[in-house]
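Supplementary material to the annual report.
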Amino acid sequence: VEPRRVMAATTARASANSELDLAKMSLREVNQLMHDTDSGDFLIRNSRGEHSLACGLDGDLNVTIDGHVGYYCAGMNKRAHVTVNGNAGTGLAENMMSGYVHVKGDASQSAGATGCGGLLVIDGNASARCGIALRGLDIVVKGSVGHMSAFMAQAGSLVVLGDAGDAFGDSLYEARLYVRGSVKALGADCVAKEMREEHKASLRKLLDAAGVNADISEFKRYGSARKLYHFHVDNAGQY
Amino acid sequence: MCGIVGLFLKNQALQRDLGRLTSLMLRELCDRGPDSAGFAVYGAETEGTTKICMVNRNGAVNWRAVARELGQAIGAEVAVEEVEDHAIFKTTGAGEVARKWLIDNVPAAYVLSQGHSIEIFKGVGNPAAIMDRLDLSERKGTHAIGHTRMATESAVTVAGSHPFSTGDDTCLVHNGSLSNHNRLRDQLVRHGERFQTDNDSEVAAAYLASRMRAGDTLKGALENGLRDLDGFYTFVVGTRDGFAVIRDPIACKPAVIAETDDWVAMASEYRAIAPLPGAEQAKIWEPAPATVYAWSRAA
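Predicted assembly:
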């Protein structure tokens, strides 16, 4: 470990469990302080729609942001628990690796995009492209999701308690999608599927983790028909 | 990328702060559009008087001489107020006739707007400096629309800056790009529309003006635009009474709307709404694709 890093970590430990005010500190100072800290609680005030807040965290941190956030909040998150008492802009928890991100308001487009692991919970609605290119993250949206959600999702789950917009699950790979409300239209190669016991158990687990008390019999499961991404031998003559 | 804002005041007591609040909003979006900026302010109406805003292309224009000649041409009194490189003509004569005369006879300047309430100001360079130079903070009124530009479709010139006027007291700001603007411009020219730039957003502005002249309501014109305008857009359209917001069906370009008892605000991002009084308690939502949202004092 280089000396500068050790020094920064020592200073930061003293600052853990503290309130960070973006009216008094720069965004870089706030993010750097959290990067240099291994554990502890932070309360961030005056977020006022700032971009890239609490990005790239990789400590056992509990971070609460008391306000609305801008683009890419909690992106690439690892291990940390991040709670936003407000709305989030584009690219919330983008490429999240693990940990837990909870937004108490709405999220703008591409929430949880390319997420690899962990749990993302959105209490309100998420707009277009929620869970686009999902690769293992679990997302629970208590409201509705916009068009093109779960587009090309490979692994992980998207649970929607409200409705899903147009082209839901378009060009889907192996992610599991559960919707309680209506789906405006399914995307290419996305189909309704039987809800077997293993899916009920997996949905129950996700809802419990998100603190949602809902009747799982009200949900429908959607998945890939697997016609788009497998080579079909009948097409061999096309080449 | 571009930054757009709209602010509509419901509480009359805030009218003296319109410019200051709009300036706070637009300042937050300077990094979304560092090339140029512009704004439309609606206010200060005088019964029977039309205002026409112009800006010089490069170099001073003798605005007093222009006012005199315009007065003779349209047979009406014309007063002029100079603001930096802009001029605001005020006349009791026919506004549409005056606008056409100015476009045809003053090639050293662009006509920015014409109407009873609207005033448009725009410039090239750092948006904050443009707002300071043209006194946005001091301007009063009922509603305003602003734009910071990162050019994609045409040159960085004062004429390419937004807002684009779309007829009497109507204007448009655009974040996005249109792909069928050349063909559409040709069609509109055949129907008598006048263009001053090669800009795609000016085509959208003229399209809406043309539809409304043909009898469409603003909402109807925007809904027809979903069929006829191909490309990416979030538009804010200002009218004498209020403003409307629409996003294309793909909705790649951002937009957020917030409303309190005192105001309605639209911006590319929430951070432009955050400086408004009571923003934290506002009802906030993202406008759905292909849906018109409109506010009006008349309603």
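Chain B is about 25% helix and 30% strand.
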